Amino acid sequence: MTRWILVVPVLAFMALVAVLLGGLETADERQLIDSPLVGKPVPDFDLPTLHEPERRVRDDDLAGAPYLLNVWGSWCPACRIEHPWIVRLDEEAPVPLIGLNWKDERTDALRWLEAFGDGWDLHLVDYVGDTAIDLGVYGAPETFLVDAEGIIVHKHIGPIDERSFADLMQRAAALADGGEET
Predict the structure, then answer these.
(1) From edge to edge, which strands make up the β-sheet containing 67-72?
(2) Fewer CB within 10 Å of terminal CB in the chain, N or C?
């Protein structure tokens, strides 16, 4: 009887450890969560640009060519981690890289870009966060691949890393070549 009193908590502890370790092995799956918007048009937006606040860009203005839309903010620690990959996307991606500066102060965003570099082709600003909500953004950073018809074909959640960079490049190249994203 005494032995079972010791065995049951040990077995319960081992089961808990196994469950937790199993969760760690699949932690990378958060980047693989499909968005309900994949396969649907980019939600309508009309946003100012960061560098020229009086200039506005609508979703229709970006149609006609594929692009990457990267949600970021100067307040976002993961965006800082991701930034070297953004610079590489700027240098190597076959499609434009559009930044969506999310719930940020303009001066903070400009200061951040000055300190770390500007790897985006254009910056849209979502001060209130409505566009990010319409896109189903969980948190920055997130990156969307949009085809020439304005359809979201892929969503990456979290910072871009070596593996997701290669995946984004392959998908963007397929779209840039006039094919479908794989």
Answers:
(1) 122-126, 97-102, 67-72, 142-146, 152-157
(2) N
Find the helix packing angle between 162-176 and 77-92, rounded to 10°.
40
Q: Quick one: what percent of the chain has pLDDT higher than 70?
A: 79
Do the beta carbons of residue 95 and residue 122 sit within 8 Å? no
Residue-wise pLDDT tens digits, 78-111: 999 999 999 999 999 999 999 999 999 999 999 9
Question: Which regions of 35-163 does DSSP assign to beta strands (E)?
Answer: 46-48, 56-58, 67-72, 97-102, 122-126, 142-146, 152-157
Torsion sign (Cα): 169, 164, 67, 39 = positive
DSSP string of 131-156, one letter each residue: HHHHHT--SS-EEEEE-TTSBEEEEE
